[in-house]
Write a structure and sequence with these properties.
- With 570 residues, this protein is α+β, with helices and mostly antiparallel strands.
- The chain folds into three domains: 229 residues, Beta Polymerase, domain 2 (2-Layer Sandwich), CATH 3.30.460.10; 113 residues, Phosphorylase Kinase, domain 1; 153 residues, Transferase(Phosphotransferase), domain 1.
- It is 47% helix and 17% strand.
């Protein structure tokens, strides 16, 4: 079935257009012809220009525009050689200035089957490009995103509108309230057919009506070559769309407004902006998982409203907010009471200002690169949390997330953080008295080794980011610096050297060594590599944490790391 609107031109008008197209083609064979813009979606005024794309085999010149008046209506025919048209479909040869006619609703004048096949081919390529863009834009989260088919339609249209605003009025007229549902259904069908082809080829997967991006696709899309190709498409797309699209737009506006004012630019801009307000936000059709179900990435719920919903309390319930985050994080504990007190953690992921992150970057130069943008840090938090939960690790459940506001509500974990345990071990003075607590440190080492076995690094393994739950479970917190294929040595170095920060520089040497030995034993017993500790003992890491921990403790812990192979099997 061809996806287009039923004809809005009467038979006489269609025949006159086709006659003119034959005149333009001359002795050459017409491959296909179609109208798009206002006449394709039934929103045209009586004075609107009829725009036709005419595809001709072996057409010389390759590309030419023809003007004619038919029955007091202005006709613009853009005649193009078949080879050029198909290259624009296949690879955006002219920045899709011609192919875009098949992105929007269109009417066939000649050769329905050919245009349908080209439409599906075009939309298949556009879907692949959008999937690649998601993989590049959300490198950690993309394989966890659930996508509705409508995303591809709206993102394609909106991206062209951003590049060339005049196309909003002509190409997107079908989003007007009176035709929105019908036009969307017609435009969507081509994407659905292209998605089925991609599913059959194993490129994408479907889950309960949502499209999922396989991890292999994400990995391939993040290559420098794909990144460069995608970036290089934007300029020609804008250039050719402007060159080939502005002339019909100006004529269309002038014909419909014979008493055109001197404020031409302002008037056409206002009309474009009016239609733009009807375009759906594409991110409405992107969803991320939480413990309470899928949440749209376009969610803009008010923080207080979301808090009451997450806490399941009434509008009248008292809500208390207490800041619990450090300098670099905006983290709050939110409490509310109805019949019983409920608590959740709220994190706001703002972009780190240069004042905040420059000292951090300077401190870790040559060793560690931090995610600075709020969007990137939120993405990592969500993606790594979802992976670890799916693999059975104890992490706080995500209760609600707003990507548009870069915020997240998470389960509050009852328990004691490991930094408190470290202080107990120092007070115990020897291994026998601290045996139970050292066993917990060993389990922390086992847990981190199992995370590393998934090829994930946590990025921020300070002892206060690890909690012993009420029933002895090891909970991992704070994944905004976590990543796939990250630096595992950083994780063990941060935990061990930062642990030394909580013991006395004079009497804490023995405690620091016991902690390091227990952690390393647990890590290695869970299959972790000795080489990680050899690397962590390198001055590249020790110099960084020497800011927080005394040289005596640093030297003692790094010495244990260098001898990690001797602890294997203990």
């Amino acid at each position: 079935m061809l996806i287009h609107h039923s004809s809005k031109l009467d038979e006489r008008a269609s025949e006159l257009i086709l006659d003119f197209c034959r005149h333009v083609a001359g002795s050459c064979q017409i491959t296909a012809a179609f109208t798009w813009s206002d006449y394709a979606h039934g929103m045209a005024s009586p004075k609107a220009v009829i725009q036709v794309i005419l595809v001709i085999r072996d057409f010389q010149p390759r590309l030419m525009t023809y003007l004619k008046v038919l029955n007091q209506k202005s006709l613009i025919v853009l005649a193009v050689d078949k080879w050029i048209f198909e290259r624009d479909i296949d690879r955006g040869f002219l920045g899709e200035a011609l192919a875009s006619g098949l992105v929007f609703p269109y009417n066939v004048i000649q050769n329905e089957g050919y245009l349908h096949s080209q439409e599906v081919k075009l939309k298949k390529r556009l879907i692949l490009e959008l999937l690649e863009n998601l993989a590049l834009g959300f490198p950690e989260l993309s394989s966890e995103i659930y996508i509705k088919p409508e995303y591809f339609m709206h993102e394609t249209m909106l991206s062209r509108a951003r590049l060339f605003p005049p196309i909003i009025y002509s190409g997107l007229g079908f989003v007007h309230e009176t035709r929105q549902k019908e036009g969307a259904e017609f435009a969507l069908q081509g994407y659905l057919e292209a998605l089925r082809l991609l599913e059959n080829e194993g490129v994408i997967g479907f889950s309960d009506g949502y499209i999922r991006i396989p991890a292999k696709f994400v990995e391939k899309a993040q290559s420098p070559r794909v990144r460069f190709i995608n970036l290089s498409k934007t300029a020609p797309r804008a250039l050719f769309s402007s060159l080939l699209g502005i002339f019909p737009q100006i004529l269309n506006f002038i014909f419909q407004n014979p008493k055109i004012s001197l404020n031409f630019q302002r008037e056409i801009t206002e009309r474009n902006a009016d239609v733009m307000r009807h375009i759906a936000d594409p991110q409405k059709y992107l969803f991320v998982p939480t413990s309470r179900g899928l949440v749209s990435m376009a969610d803009k719920s008010d923080v207080k409203v979301s808090a009451r919903k997450v806490l399941s309390v009434s509008k009248d319930a008292s809500v208390q907010v207490k800041r619990i985050g450090g300098v670099l994080n905006d983290v709050y504990l939110i409490k509310a009471s109805n019949d019983a007190e409920r608590r959740v953690v709220f994190k706001s992921f703002r972009d780190w200002s240069s004042f905040k992150w420059f000292p951090l970057a300077l401190w870790t130069v040559g060793t560690r690169t931090f995610a600075v943008l709020g969007r990137s840090r939120l993405e990592r938090e969500c993606a790594i949390n979802e992976i670890l939960i799916s693999k059975g690790f104890n992490v706080p459940k995500i209760l609600h997330v707003s990507h548009s506001q870069r915020s997240i509500f998470m389960e509050y974990i009852e328990g004691a953080s490991i930094d408190k345990l470290i202080k107990k071990i120092e007070r115990a003075k020897d291994a026998k008295r601290a045996e139970e607590d050292l066993q917990v440190i060993m389990r922390v080492g086992e847990t981190i080794a199992k995370v590393h076995a998934l090829n994930i690094s946590l990025g921020d393994t300070k002892p206060e980011n690890i909690i012993v739950g009420k029933n002895g479970e090891i909970y991992l917190l704070d994944f905004e610096q976590a990543s796939r294929k990250g630096d595992k040595a950083w994780d063990v170095a941060e935990f061990l050297y930062y642990a030394g920060h909580y013991v006395s520089s004079l009497s804490g040497k023995q405690a620091a060594e016991l902690i390091a030995k227990s952690f390393i034993s647990g890590y290695l017993s869970a299959g972790g590599s000795v080489s990680v500790f050899k690397k962590a003992a390198n001055p590249k890491y020790t110099r960084i944490f020497s800011v927080f921990t005394s040289p005596i403790i640093m030297f003692a812990v790094s010495g244990i790391c260098k001898k990690a192979d001797q602890l294997k099997g203990d």
